[in-house]
Amino acid sequence: MSPVRPATVRLHRLAFAIAALLPFGTAFAQETPASTAPAAPAAQSAATLDTVQVTAQRKVENIQDVPVSISTINGEQLGVLTSGGTDIRFLSGRVPSLNVESSFGRAFPRFYIRGYGNTDFRLNTSQPVSLVYDDVVQENPILKGFPLFDLEQVEVLRGPQGSLFGRNTPAGVVKFESAKPSQETSGYGKVGVGSDNMWNVEGAVGGALSPNWSARASVLYQRRDDWVTNTYPGPSDGFEGYDESAGRVQFLYEGDGFEALFNAHARKLNGTARLFRANIIDPGTNNFVPGFDEDKVSQDGLNYSELESQGASARLNWDIGDYKLYSITGYESVETINRGDIDGGYGAVFLPDSGPGVIPFASETADGIPDHSQWTQEFRIESEYAGPWNWQAGLFYFKEDYRVESFSYDSLNNSAQDGYQRIRQTNDAWAVFGAATWQATDKLELRAGLRYTVDEKKLTVEDYWNTGFAACVLAGKCTLAQLAALEPDGDLSASPEDKKFNWDLSATYAVSDDVNLYARAATGFRGSSIQAAGAFNGKSVAGPETVTSIETGVKADFWDKRARVSAGVFYYRIKDQQLTAVGGAANANILLNAEKSVGKGFELDFQAYVLDNLLVTLGSSYNDTEIKDDDLNVAVCAACTVTDEEVLDQNGDPTGRYYIGGNQLPQAPKWVHNLTARYSIGMGDGSELYVYTDWAYRSEVNFFLYDSIEFTGKSSLEGGLRVGYGWGYGDYEVALFGRNITDQRRIVGGIDFNNLTGFINEPRTVGVEFSAKF
Question: Is the dihedral of CA 708, 111, 619, 41 positive or negative?
Fold first, then answer.
């Protein structure tokens, strides 16, 4: 474990010093999402924080009363943070304990809460962090990248969930809620232009269709030119550009005791897949190689990302006296293909000119989903008694059916295809859940929840052939039958079925009207995962993982409602955690179960009006994770410096495998800090000038299960700046903005089977934006 550097220590001390002097936080008051900055407080009265309403427990509540570690980002904050046309990864670090990364670019985000996530890049993988968009779970990782626009707010729930809604989620939930239709005519429009011919255009309009019906339509368009030049005379001249559009239409019916909300949405993306860059890491360090130029690469393979998705939902609720009945029906479908030059360069070691460093062997692949469907249905009933007891109960059904295609190409032979595999995976699951609350005293509320889940997956290999790196290549071509012959039992299918009870217990104690203490204990569950047999590895199945989590904390408003704080400590233990060993000298991709993993830490979430025209927020978290399995070992990179203990055979000779027990989980930063400040000057007649800055910090991370010098990502600190002028009492605004204003460059991920290939963060973006609302 590397020591904490002095500069990092100073940064942590600075965060705590600010915490000691100022009340701060990341939960902004809920506002209309049309504008990009909070309206200036009235000059005649002191500025106070509005109540933040959340639906973490499936009913609208004050965030301070919910016994869950939860943070929110409202529509106005999202408007600031998306100024540069960024995708959903911009959420990383914007609330405590949240990390988001991707090896697919805009198409496939991977979420981690409290260090608990999944680095698996396969298109049939599952994640312990659930993403819920308008009450419908987005299970496939490609669906999780749907753009964020015209939202009321984002809620991030940390810790196991499941006794109240949806899928059982062991790590937590990221929940998005769109702005809903209303009888009032309203809308907004926004146009931003910036670096590399970036355009970010979005808008919405809605209002009454009749006394009972209203509607709202929202659209988004984003584009950017390629900003990386390909110096190799290959099939692609440049990379990192994209063209993306999305839309949503909603219809709301409000009747006597009945409400129905219908939603249809779609997305289309055409751009560059993740850009891998060969040998950009200086051996023996985690620095860029001397002379690294982020604007240039040399690649001989194709690179593109194409995606189309669509979905619809119907959310119905009935008010039946002392009860409310809910029905949520959802459908999602996606088609996608991503192709990239995985070796990150051109040529190979046996060629006279290997371009950007030595490349042991060429690798160019593509992965796609040609057809996909996901159906979800949830029924829920809740009581609304006047007494101290109330309860909720529900049923949840999930059905997913899709195919995944994988292709490989020979970059040294005009990118001729040399491999193909098609698998089909189905996932059928159902659950029954319920929870009860008891107002034991005026100050103490107790809650208990229970869930029973049945989760069944089935994977079959429908087609396969390979003429490249495979055990049967000497025969000229590996076929589906030959692949089956390599399996110990000759069976290429797998169909695990898992059943599990989960529970949660929580308590909230009101010390006063403004201060609540809470405690929560909960368990979570994730069903088995399947890895199909392929050219480099056999079929593997990782059994179900379970987690037990405990946390306790305080939530308080103080300083006459000018400040708000939420703080807590937590501990969790994962049994049989599913891990993915990727790459290594054998280029394997294998599922593993770790005997146990643990995590512990704390989270702070504060905000305050330091002055009536100065709002400061700061969030902070510490996450200490560890794999506890003394015998677990994996293959490692062929070109990096591994610091773990090597596995020796019975003769004491090295095996090329290393123990990973004691390592922290991958992509699990110990520290996450975020800071924002907004200062405004009233100009009279409903106009104002303001300056808004935001900063997100995360400490170093491991890219893989093993520890190595080269594949340890450095700490990161990215900032944004926005200077705006608004008039018409907030109806109009023009602003200059900058994202990653220090132009920080960081290696944020790698490919470890071939050479020191990595991928980097987004560059600095500057631009101007105009917005109007009505």
Answer: positive
Length of the chain in terms of residues written: 774
Distance CA 404, CA 530 (A): 13
Decide if 308 contacts 268 (C-beta within 8 A).
yes
Give the integer Cα–Cα distance in Å for 226 and 278.
Answer: 19
Residue 45 neighbours by CB under 8 Å, 6+ apart: none
Two tokens at 368?
Answer: 């796609």
Q: Counting beta carbons within 10 angstroms of the beta carbon of residue 672, is it exposed (0 to 12), middle (13 to 18) or buried (19 or more)?
A: buried
Q: Residue 79 — pLDDT band, cuts 50, 70, 90?
A: confident
List pLDDT tens digits, range 234-250. 788 899 999 999 999 99
Q: How does residue 359 score in pLDDT terms, banded at 50, 70 and 90?
A: confident
Are the C-beta atoms of 766 and 194 separated by less than 8 Å? yes
Put residue 559 in one of left, alpha, beta given phi > 0 → left and psi -120 to 50 → alpha.
Answer: left
Which helix (H) or strand (E) segment holds residue 564: the answer is strand 563-583
Largest CA distance in the chain: 85
Tokens of 502: 């989960």
Q: What percent of the chain has pLDDT over 70?
A: 91
What tokens does 639 get?
């070109």
Q: Is 425 exposed, middle or buried (0-12, 13-18, 19+ CB in 10 A)?
A: buried
Query: Closest by alpha carbon to 104, among 353, 303, 321?
Result: 303
The alpha carbon dihedral of 485, 489, 491, 494 has a sign of: negative
Q: Which residues of 224-243 are buried (b: 16+ CB within 10 A; e: fewer)?
A: bebbbebebebebebbbbbe
Integer-rounded Cα radius of gyration of the chain: 26
CB 138 within 8 A of CB 306: no
Q: Residue 279 half-sphere exposure, CB side, CA atoms within 13 Å?
A: 17
Asked whether the beta carbons of 232 and 298 are under 8 A apart, the reply is: yes
CB atoms within 10 A of CB 552: 18
Ramachandran area for residue 727 (φ above 0: left; ψ -120 to 50: alpha; else beta) = beta
Residue 67: predicted pLDDT: 86
Query: Strand pairing of 540-542 and 53-54?
Result: unpaired
> Predicted confidence band at 19 (pLDDT cuts at 50, 70, 90)?
very low
pLDDT band at 509; cut points 50, 70, 90: very high
Identify whether the C-beta of residue 89 lies closer than 8 Å to the C-beta of residue 81: no
| pLDDT, mean of residues 309-313 | 97
577 token code pair: 């955690």
Structure-token pair, residue 27: 């939960």
| Model pLDDT for residues 563-611, shown as the tens digit of each residue | 999 999 999 999 999 998 887 666 677 889 999 999 999 999 999 999 9
- 41 pLDDT band (50/70/90 cuts)? very low
pLDDT for 480 equals 87
Task: Count Cβ atoms within 10 A of the Cβ of residue 679 and give its class: 0-12 exposed, 13-18 middle, 19 or more buried.
Answer: middle
Q: Are strands 716-727 and 687-698 parallel, antiparallel or unpaired?
A: antiparallel
- Residue whose structure tokens are 């910090």: 697
User: What's the chain's average pLDDT?
Assistant: 88
Residue 12 host element (H or E): helix 6-21
Task: Provide the 8-state DSSP code for 645.
Answer: P
Question: Phi, psi at residue 747, to the nearest 5°?
Answer: -80, 120
Let me know: does 267 contact 146? Beta carbons within 8 Å: yes
The encoded tokens of residue 121 equal 């890049």
Weakest mean pLDDT among 46-50, 401-405, 672-676: 46-50
Residue 90: phi, psi to the nearest 5? -65, -15
730-756 burial code (b ≥16 CB/10 A, e <16): bebbebebbbbbeeebbbbbbbbbbbb
The pLDDT value given to residue 174: 93
Sort 719 into a burial class: Cβ within 10 Å, 0-12 / 13-18 / 19+. middle
pLDDT class for 27, splitting at 50, 70, 90? very low
